[in-house]
Amino acid sequence: MKSYSLATRALPIDDSWDVIVIGGGPSGSTAAAAAARQGARTLLVEGSGALGGMGTNALVPAWCPFSDRQQLVYRGLAERILDESKKSTPHVPKDQLDWVPINPEALKRIYEDLVLEQGAQILFHTTLASVEMRAGGEVDALVVANKAGLSALRAKVYVDCTGDADLCHFAGAETIKGDGNNGALMPATHCFVLTNVDDYAYRHGENLYSGNPKSPIYAMRESGRYPLIPDTHLCANMIGPGAVGFNAGHVFDFDNTDPWSISRGLTQGRKLAQSFRDGLAEFAPAAFGNAFLALTGSMMGVRETRRVIGDYVLTFDDYMNRQSFDDEICRNSYFIDIHQDQKAAAKNHAERIASQKKNSHRYEPGESHGIPYRCLTPKGLRNVLVAGRCISTERIVQGSVRVMPTCLAMGEAAGLAAGLASSAPSPDVHTVDTTHLRTLLRNQGAYLP
Predict the structure, then answer these.
(1) N or C: which end of the chain has fewer CB within 10 A?
(2) How does pLDDT run across 25-39, given as a tens digit for each residue?
(3) Regarding beta strands 42-45 and 121-123, do their DSSP bridges make them parallel or antiparallel, or are they unpaired?
(4) Mean pLDDT of 415-432
């Protein structure tokens, strides 16, 4: 690629912050709230116009389980967000903890209220453009782009909640993408919402979920009339009156760190959503005969890109051993949920379900594993923490810890640690007293047995 040299120029800088969080998804929202709650002057920078990431902008229609099938595992700020979210879906039983449908518009306000009430500030439509470094692996400033042009932001401690480890990658930290050998990433999904759905027929008709052999997805595929639908992946949740949210289909060969790939994926995903609407209207007419494609996600449902190499890499053995750690900052009980490549996804129903069960490694009720603080501390970076799907894990374990409830819990811990580190004379996230950190998390309701 050709290069272009920028002319030397000065940028305006805002250096009034103790903690800057980049990325306003689940982990970024709780990180900003927790840092501000700890007394740090905190700024949350988000590239879109709303907080929430996958649950709002990407329209993922339901929370992954909050329980280990015996008790609530993701507590603290995560529990507060779940409780507030459930208030906006009154059709959901009050005691339901797993696969709770999401009202995305309400969830945007819930995240904003959480962050602002704790005293943090939000800067929307602002994108991280580059990272300026000092010696010793210390971030000096971030260059961001928005409607005001380029400017610089400086804090004592930074939290990378981009999901793609953008800040860490730009800062020169070691990251790995996928299997590290240019292998395919897990496919993305472009979620969407159908409205004017017949509630009664939806609730009492055949289950749409592709785990059901009678799901209409199989007739849709076999008809040959919907060639854009690449596989039988279909999950759906009633998110409001006559409104059903879909996490359905896959966009393969998608890389969220490649802007051209993002552009191709979004255009493909919108066409795919229309195909689903038309196929369901044909093969499940009682519920979807008059359905209207109301909305597709403004961002893709991304499952995997870069992972940071931290002071500790969470391993498959840790997952299988239900490992506990002296410095663990939360627990995780979600199964290993690897979405398959296009060849595997195109298998017939029996083969696909058998393969999924073989590779999911589900826990028994009451079981979970710990996530140590050291997975949130990138090697080589002194004043940067990371939270969300890009923490330091082996690839297979990332298929479990990547989901929203876990990200909420990780974000709260990272934000609290950032607040603690920022108060030190020479901030170093690797030297945070994890015993004190865990005590503070427990005091805020975190589940740390």
Answers:
(1) N
(2) 999 999 999 999 999
(3) parallel
(4) 98
